[in-house]
Amino acid sequence: MVGSFLCPTPAAWAAHPADLDAGKEAYVANCARCHGDLGDGKGPDAQRMIPRPRDFTTGTYKFRTTASGTPPTDEDLFHTISYGLAGTRMLGWEGLNEETRHNLVAYIKGLSPKFTESAPQPVDIGKDPGKKADLARGKQLYADLGCAACHGALGRANGPSAAALVDDWNQPARPANFAHKWTLRAGGEPKEIVTRLATGVDGTPMPSYIDAVPVEDLWHLAYYLHSIQEETEWGWALRPQQATALPSEPADPAWNKVPQRDVKLWSNLYADGAVVSTNVYWAKIQALSDGNEIVFRIGWDDPTQSKESPADQLAVVFAPEASDAWEVGSLQSWPAADSPALDVWLWSSTANQIRQATTVGFDLPASSPTLPAQAVYEEGRWWLTFKKQLQPGSVTPMALVAWDGGNQEIARKRSVSSWIDLTEERRNDSR
Ligand code: HEC
Ligand code: HEC
User: What separation in Å is there between the alpha carbon of 93 and the centre of ligand 1?
Assistant: First the structure.
């Protein structure tokens, strides 16, 4: 929560009374389409997103530096408005000048009686131990305090309770995935994590731990969670690394040294005007080539392993010609009338095999060949490896489509990535 951002001191706030009319004007212009004219979280765009925009009338705020159940401070609200919430549609509003943000804070506070009925109670998070943080102790606390029930043993949001959690607004409450710093709403630095542990995330099943253990332990825990965050390499291109021997198992240690490409996946399926929630939002792709074949390893987080129908599925889609990808545009709407055929490699957890066909849509013909593939599921993450013949000299657009069977994802209820360019080269024809 606290960083090196420009934030007026409490004294400066007091000396500079907010202009509520100006706050309302800025709210109507910038915030109401999501948060609603009345601040009830029911703006015209609200149904398009998960998590939903906050309902300001209840005065319940998730991200605070204050004790659970008490309102946030003005600085907390100023910080959220300025920097937004990672992994959500709440972007930062640094483009609005400080005075406007100050007026917005006052305006949204006025939407709930909570701010006059109770006062914020800042929580003391003690001292940052820095390099003295004890990661082993943090890991032990993670087990002892039962975090894994929701967040999973390795912190990948796959705990046994995860699927059933709901928030105060009757929406599914997904536990944080600690592998992915870029999804941690209010920041992934130890000080930000320790603040969440000390204050809880009000309105959600995430409790406060300030009374559970000494505050030093919360720091060890926060540093442990920080240590399991994974690196990401976002981008639009994938160039397989040259190798003499190609691994076939996902667990082969050779993969540890292979560069990765991270991609985001999302759903744009609507039902009754609201976006349908799907579970897979990230995958990483690695590729090695020996000059004849490419072997891929794809990892993606899926909170449940589905052994029966509906299966977990992953489709790796290649566009035979680059122009096909242009014609399709986003794979979200594929197949549509007149869609071109694409080269579909469809893996399913029930049969644990890949079927391949150049076809229109994901109902592959029964005659499609079955190709070897290896898949393993480990603590909330699937790993899949398979090989494909190299087409030297070509740049092939590829994209991923994922279905979490445990979330009843079938047909168009799916998560889809953008296209990335796969550069296929013969050995040594680069540089
Ligand atoms: C495109 C939609 C959108 C717009 C526009 C938007 N927000 Fe949000 N806002 C959200 C979403 C979604 C959340 C909830 C995120 C979550 O629950 O993690 C949110 C949450 C918040 C929170 C609550 C944080 C908490 O601790 O619970 C505040 C405060 C907030 N927004 C203020 C504003 C203000 C002020 C504006 C206008 C300057 C604004 N928002 C504009 C989508 C939006
Ligand atoms: C009962 C289920 C549950 C338990 C137990 C639980 N959490 Fe959470 N946790 C959640 C949920 C749900 C969220 C997401 C809240 C939101 O943003 O809507 C969350 C969010 C968080 C966040 C905030 C991440 C962010 O986005 O900024 C942290 C940090 C966290 N949990 C750590 C822990 C740790 C450490 C423990 C054990 C000491 C723990 N949690 C126990 C359910 C739980």
Answer: 10
